[in-house]
Amino acid sequence: MAAADFLPHDAAVAGIKDVISRLEAERAAAQRRTRWLPFVAGFWLIVGVVALSLVFNVYADPAEQWFSPLHVFLYVGAFVLAYAVYYWTSRLDPSLRQSQRLAILSAAFGFLPEVRIGRGSKPSSFARMPREVAGDFDGESFDDVIAGRYEDFGFELYEARLTKGSGKSLDVAFKGVVVAFELVVPFPGVLVATRKLERQTGFLRGLFARSLEPVESGVAGLDASYAFLTDNPQAAQPLVTGQLPKALDWLAEAWPEEPARVALNGKDGFLLLPLRKNFFELPPATEPIDYTLHVEPMIADLSAMLATASLVRKIGADAQP
């Protein structure tokens, strides 16, 4: 599947480019306004330093005019203050980029029906995700959350960072994108395909309250890199030896950075794609946004993830009479 297969139609692309052009005009105007602020602030800072220096000269020794200890402290303080003033007056308001970011994401993913975009809130599907698929964690944070419909199913896609411990002992159990969706055929229980740790699978099972039993796919390479855990081995075995390995092989080709993870829990399916970068990252406010460089790859990646979820959600459907 090529990236072009996942892009919206020409009219939608034209609408996205119009939004980007409008926002770029706003950003350029804001940048022009801030360009003069350092000079204005610097002028008044110099006026203040000269005025205070003249006052200090009244009380300074005639031999220390302009160079008394008070003058030196004033100059050093003015230098530090000048740097801070330049930094704060030359930068664009961070809220500008955040508001533009929301507008761009809304336009970019507007081709998806019923799309909703949020940030920082806990996704409603996260509570139903089997914790075993991510490993042991006691901390969670979320960035962008996108919900809507793709083809004939609803989805919730979000950036998550799941951690264990704090400070120097902080361990990242998972960082990347989670796609939650409804399965075509509900699985009678829980089935998890997660990365196999150096520690034994039995230790992993012992971290959680419920008891999940290991099952194997019979594919040596897959069993070496994945741990398959379930509370219903009888129902899981046909999937683990059939459709699930094929889906994981395809995921390994599409997302080679780190093994993708899959979890089934009743009617809910979860696809976890580890990523090092911010998936919805845009350039800083000082740089212009380009549709081809910044937005089109984002749309293609998101659509590819949803197309992958569309395949994963059909696991078990072919086995139905």
Explain what the structure shows.
44% of the residues lie in helices and 23% in strands. Strands 1, 2, 3, 4, 5, 6 and 7 form a seven-stranded antiparallel β-sheet that branches. It has helices spanning 10-59, 69-90, 94-108, 201-206, 220-225, 233-240, 243-254, 291-312, and strands at residues 116-119, 139-150, 153-164, 171-195, 213-215, 226-230, 261-274. It folds into two domains: 3-92; 96-312, no CATH class. It has 321 residues and is of the alpha+beta class. It starts with 9 loop residues before the first helix and ends in a 9-residue tail after the last helix. Helix 1 packs antiparallel against helix 3 (94-108). The model has no long low-confidence stretch (mean pLDDT 83). The chain has eight helices and seven strands. It is elongated and about 95 Å long.
Summarize the structure.
With 321 residues, this protein is α+β, with helices and mostly antiparallel strands. 44% of the residues lie in helices and 23% in strands.
| Share in β-strands | 15-25%
- Principal-axis shape equals elongated
Helix content: 40-55%
Number of domains: 2
| Rg, nearest Å | 28 Å
Main β-sheet description: 7 strands, antiparallel
Number of helices: 8
**What separation lies between the terminal Cα atoms?**
30 Å
Beta strand count: 7
Category from helices, strands and their pairing: alpha+beta
Mean pLDDT: 83
Strand/helix succession: HHHEEEEHEHEHHEH
| Low-confidence regions | none
